[in-house]
Specification:
single chain, 344 residues, mainly alpha, Serine Threonine Protein Phosphatase 5, Tetratricopeptide repeat, 17 helices, 71% helix, globular
Length: 344
C-alpha cells in the first residue's frame, strides 16, 4: 500500500509539472486580473520544475519571463528582479564571478560596469525589456561594451528591439571612438546596411554625445567615414560603373577562395545598400568564409540561423556558429555565448 501511495504521489507531481510547464498562450489577450492570478502559479511552477530536471526548469523560466514582460508593459509589475533570486545569483556568478547582490548594489550607485552586467544577466533569462533598460543606462554612462551591445541589438533585432539605423550607428560610432575594436568593425557593416542620410544624422548625434561626455576623440565628423575601395567596398555615391567593377573584382576573388572577399561581398548582399539585398547569396558567401575560419562570417551565420534570415531557423546550428566565432576571438559571439551556456 505504501508503494502504491508513493507511485500515486509521483504521478500527481508529474501531472502537476507537465500542466504548469505548459501554462502560457497569448498573454496579451488575458485580463490584468488573469495575469495577476497566473503570477503565483508560475512562481510555484518554476520552483517545482527545478526538481524535475534542467529542461523542465528552462521551459518554466521562459514562460515566466514571457508573463513578466507582459505584466511590465501594463505596469502591473514594478520589481526588476522577477526571476528566482537563486537562479539569477547563479547566472551572475557564472558570467561575472560575483554575486547578484554585489552587482545590484553597485548598479544602484550608477556603476556603469555593474549596470552592463545586470543587462547581460537579464538577457540571459530572456527578460529583454529589462536587459535593454540596464544596457542603455550603462551606455549613457560611457561604458563601451554596453554601447557595442546596444548597437548590435538594434542592428540585428537579437534582443527583442526593432531594427533601428539611428541607434545602431550612433552606439557603434560612440563605442568605436572610445577604442572598442569590435565596434569599429561593426560600424563598417552598419554603414553598408543603412542609408547615407541615416548615417549622417547618427554621426551628428554621436558627436554631440561624445562632446557632452568630454571624451577626447580624433576624426569625429558629421560625414560618415566610408571604407576604402582597396578593401572591396565603395562609397554609395560612386557611379554604377565603378561599383559594378568593384563587385566584379570581389566576385572573382571570392571564387578563387579569398576569405576577405567572401566576407565583404557577403556583407554587401546582407546589407543591401550598395547592391540589391540577397540573403541567400550572403549566406553562401558567409559559409565559404566561415569554413576558412572567419569569425565574423561565423557570427553572421549564427545570427541568420537564429532569426531565420537567409538560413533555415535553427537554434542549435546558431549556437554552433556562435561557438566557432567565439573561439576565433569574435567579441560579440563571446558575449552572446556567455548568456546561452550559463545555467541557473
Amino acid at each position: 500500500m505504501g508503494i502504491e501511495l508513493v507511485i500515486g504521489m509521483a504521478v500527481l507531481v508529474a501531472i502537476f509539472i507537465i500542466f504548469f510547464t505548459n501554462i502560457g498562450g497569448d498573454y496579451s489577450k488575458r485580463t490584468d486580473q488573469q495575469l495577476l492570478d497566473l503570477w503565483s502559479l508560475h512562481e510555484s511552477n518554476v520552483r517545482a520544475a527545478r526538481s524535475v530536471g534542467p529542461e523542465a526548469h528552462k521551459k518554466a523560466v521562459e514562460k515566466m519571463s514571457t508573463l513578466t514582460n507582459e505584466m511590465k508593459k501594463r505596469g502591473l509589475l514594478r520589481s526588476d528582479y522577477t526571476q528566482e533570486s537563486e537562479a539569477l545569483d547563479s547566472l551572475s556568478r557564472n558570467l561575472f564571478s560575483r554575486g547578484l547582490d554585489e552587482i545590484k548594489s553597485l548598479a544602484k550607485a550608477n556603476d556603469a560596469v555593474a549596470l552592463y552586467q545586470l543587462g547581460m544577466i537579464f538577457r540571459g533569462v530572456k527578460e529583454l525589456s529589462t536587459s535593454i533598460k540596464y544596457m542603455s543606462e550603462s551606455a549613457n554612462l560611457g561604458y563601451a561594451d554596453a554601447q557595442y551591445a546596444l548597437g548590435w541589438a538594434f542592428m540585428t533585432e537579437e534582443s527583442g528591439v526593432a531594427r533601428d539605423a539611428y541607434e545602431t550607428i550612433k552606439w557603434f560610432k560612440i563605442a568605436a571612438e572610445q577604442g572598442h575594436i569590435e565596434a569599429r568593425k561593426a560600424l563598417d557593416v552598419a554603414l553598408k546596411s543603412f542609408s547615407k542620410a541615416e548615417a549622417e544624422f547618427a554621426f551628428a548625434e554621436a558627436e554631440k554625445w561624445l562632446t557632452r561626455k568630454n571624451v577626447e576623440v580624433s576624426h569625429v565628423g558629421t560625414e560618415p567615414q566610408q571604407p576604402s575601395t582597396s578593401e572591396g567596398l565603395q562609397n554609395p555615391g560612386a557611379n554604377n560603373d565603378t561599383l559594378s567593377t568593384v563587385v566584379s573584382e570581389l566576385e572573382q576573388l571570392a571564387k578563387s577562395g579569398d576569405t576577405k572577399a567572401q566576407l565583404k561581398l557577403g556583407e554587401m548582399y546582407f546589407g543591401g545598400k550598395e547592391i540589391q539585398q540577397d540573403l541567400r547569396k550572403a549566406a553562401v558567401l558567409f559559409l565559404k568564409a566561415a569554413k576558412s575560419g572567419s569569425p565574423d562570417a561565423q557570427l553572421y551565420l549564427g545570427t541568420m540561423c537564429e532569426n531565420g534570415r537567409g538560413m533555415p531557423k535553427n537554434s542549435l546550428m546558431a549556437m554552433e556558429w556562435y561557438v566557432k566565432a567565439a573561439e576565433g576571438g569574435n567579441g560579440m559571439a563571446q558575449v552572446i555565448l556567455s548568456t546561452r551556456i550559463a545555467k541557473p
